[in-house]
Amino acid sequence: MYNFETVNSKEFESFTIKVHEPFAEFLMADENEYAFKISLLDVVHFAGHACPAMVGAFLISQRATKELFPETNICVRGQVSIEIPTSVTQGATGPISNVFSMIFGAWEKSGFGGLQGQFVRRGLLKYDSQLVSPGAFRFRNLKTGNIVDVSYDPSSVKVPDDIASLPFQKVWRYKIATILKSPADYIQSHRANSC
């Protein structure tokens, strides 16, 4: 059995997404500023905690990056729009969308408005989308038009009785460990081209 006590910052750090930030490159930043990795540990630091929702937000982003940028597997900031079927205040939607914004540079109203019509980040994230099935998140590559719907279901993690009787913090760590052991069991995606 995968021991929840083995989940730690080193393991979180081993899960990464490669990111390219074209705005920083345009501004003549050095390579470390525009070509870098965001790890699950970075997300944990950003969110202030690790939980199944934050782990899921990272894994969803990782899958969306793989599907939308298959040749490079590098997320290009500002090139992805995101639609979420729920409101920002429903459940963990807000914290999950914050992670999406951190990784993809897609924001609702508070994002960067752009420079001479380029590098716009505002309006790339939409809540209450009626086009997306409940439990899914829609990612669109604005350059290619490719779309992927990614869903995540941490409720399907089976918690043994001896773990379920422990304090909820340890149950959370067990769930995180189980999800990270086999992410594909909890993430599903459907890719389609836009019309």
Spell out the helices and strands N to C: HEHHEHHEEHEEEHHE
Distance between the termini: 46 Å
- Coarse shape: globular
- Helical amount among residues, as a percent range? 25-40%
Radius of gyration: 17 Å
At CATH level 3, the topology is 60s Ribosomal Protein L30, Chain: A
Mean of residue pLDDT values: 93
Which features characterize this protein?
single chain; 195 residues; alpha/beta; 60s Ribosomal Protein L30, Chain: A; 5-stranded mixed sheet; 3-stranded mixed sheet; 8 strands; 20% strand; globular
Task: Describe the protein's architecture and organization.
The chain is α/β, with parallel strands linked by helices. It has one domain: 60s Ribosomal Protein L30, Chain: A (2-Layer Sandwich). The protein contains 8 helices and 8 strands, in the order αβααβααββαβββααβ. A 5-stranded mixed β-sheet has the order 5-4-6-7-8, with helices on one face. Strand 4, helix 6 and strand 5 form a beta-alpha-beta unit. Helix 5 runs parallel beside helix 6. The longest helix is centred in the first third of the chain and has 17 residues. The model has no long low-confidence stretch (mean pLDDT 93).
